[in-house]
Amino acid sequence: METTHRVFVGDSRDLAAVGDDTVELVVTSPPYPMIEMWDDLFTELDPAIGDALESGAGRRAFEAMHAQLDRVWDEVERVLVDGGIACINVGDATRSVDGSFRVFSNHARVLEAFESRGFDPLPDVLWRKPTNSAAKFMGSGTLPPNAYVTLEHEYVLLFRNGGESRSFEPGADRRYEAAYFWEERNNWFSDVWTDVKGELQHLEQPDNTERSGQDTDLRDRSAAYPFEIPYRLITMYSAYGDTVLDPFWGTGTTTLAAMCAGRHSIGQELETGFRDVFDERVERVPSLSRSVGQARLERHREFVEQRRAEGKEPSYDAVHYDTSVVTKMERELLFREVVETEPIDDGYRAIHEPLFDEGR
């Protein structure tokens, strides 16, 4: 199996390189309005935003920033197939503007934007961000009543384009081979993820490598999220052969996840330097994709053993692996590993082979 991963440099408010109704899944993390690190970017897009911030008009700046994101959501609506899913990772912002501290609810504004474009909101996910600060309060410290809750979570907002779910031909291999394990389904489809820095985060992965000062600087200006988030979302909401779009490509984490998950991908990014940084990351995809698949299989076998110890014998045997599974839908599950990557004119090509047990 071969997948292609195209990366375009340009403004995400115009995804001209992406055709109408050509993408099955969108997974992205945009710049968060009213987070200070993004003020300059939004002001470059609309100088009136800088004027609003300077004059202390926080609500006006907030709305003007989202007006720029709205143009990206227009493009998402255009390129996403009917029944396709959009996954938007976004956090709210807290900020003092004109001497008044408040929260700016980015997730609510994005929800409103997608609903107004005819998307059906689906139950969303909360995940807890890592924090290095021991302080869990803002404002008046340990004295009531003027302290503030610390934001330590972000949202993955989920939307379906139109009222109908996608359909597949009966018994489609690319869907059944892309299944997830029963216990993964129970964990992943929970509305609170407390394990996104769990086992997959400790695997060998390019996210943990910094090769230069430029690399560090670019990461500081990216909206990067943990590898586990796009990998999980891609596995949950797409099948083999689908195309995943990230209009805020950044350091390319969504593309890495798509490669490891055996999906095609498209990314668009305003900052040209990110493409150079990604060239090194992609070299490590074969080892990353193999370790991700092996880790999922090992965790499943541990689950099966625990289930048997509780007197619950799984009902079916997997076709491709020496393990049992709980449901019939899991029997055909087949992981794909990347065995080779190569650059092409507008991105990368990845060659995949089935990931089998050692010795099979």
From TrEMBL:
<keyword id="KW-0808">Transferase</keyword>
<keyword id="KW-0680">Restriction system</keyword>
<dbReference type="GO" id="GO:0009307">
    <property type="term" value="P:DNA restriction-modification system"/>
</dbReference>
<dbReference type="InterPro" id="IPR017985">
    <property type="entry name" value="MeTrfase_CN4_CS"/>
</dbReference>
<dbReference type="GO" id="GO:0015667">
    <property type="term" value="F:site-specific DNA-methyltransferase (cytosine-N4-specific) activity"/>
</dbReference>
<feature type="domain" description="DNA methylase N-4/N-6">
    <location>
        <begin position="23"/>
        <end position="276"/>
    </location>
</feature>
<keyword id="KW-0489">Methyltransferase</keyword>
<keyword id="KW-0949">S-adenosyl-L-methionine</keyword>
<dbReference type="InterPro" id="IPR029063">
    <property type="entry name" value="SAM-dependent_MTases_sf"/>
</dbReference>
<dbReference type="GO" id="GO:0032259">
    <property type="term" value="P:methylation"/>
</dbReference>
<comment type="similarity">
    <text>Belongs to the N(4)/N(6)-methyltransferase family. N(4) subfamily.</text>
</comment>
<dbReference type="Pfam" id="PF01555">
    <property type="entry name" value="N6_N4_Mtase"/>
</dbReference>
<keyword id="KW-0238">DNA-binding</keyword>
<dbReference type="GO" id="GO:0003677">
    <property type="term" value="F:DNA binding"/>
</dbReference>
<protein>
    <recommendedName>
        <fullName>Type II methyltransferase</fullName>
        <ecNumber>2.1.1.113</ecNumber>
    </recommendedName>
</protein>
<dbReference type="InterPro" id="IPR002941">
    <property type="entry name" value="DNA_methylase_N4/N6"/>
</dbReference>
<dbReference type="InterPro" id="IPR001091">
    <property type="entry name" value="RM_Methyltransferase"/>
</dbReference>
<dbReference type="GO" id="GO:0008170">
    <property type="term" value="F:N-methyltransferase activity"/>
</dbReference>
